[in-house]
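#lab-general

N.A. 3:47 PM
ok so I finally got the sequence cleaned up, no stray characters, all 103 residues accounted for. can someone with queue access submit it? mine expired

B.Y. 3:52 PM
send it over

N.A. 3:53 PM
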Amino acid sequence: MVRNMIPSLIGTATMALAVMVHPAAAQPVLNCAEHSKVVDFLGSHYSETLQAVGFINQAAILEVYVSESGSWTMLVTNANGSSCVVFAGQSWETIPVVPGLKT
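B.Y. 4:20 PM
back already:
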């Protein structure tokens, strides 16, 4: 199941990056702000902290913020320091990595 979600996640993150690259297209997007402001908001309103990060390309990274209650938010942050919320939800579960287990 995780393997099937990865292409969808990459596609969505790529679309979010495309919106961030073209300022005219990004104007109506209300879920973007300076990275530090988004992180402060997630911490103060949802008690979410950074749990995972990965490079999308040389111009953007994907970050996952998760709270102990299970709320989660995925951000795409560009090289200019602007972050956009691309996904958010509830019931996050961290699955431990088991050596030799195929996913």
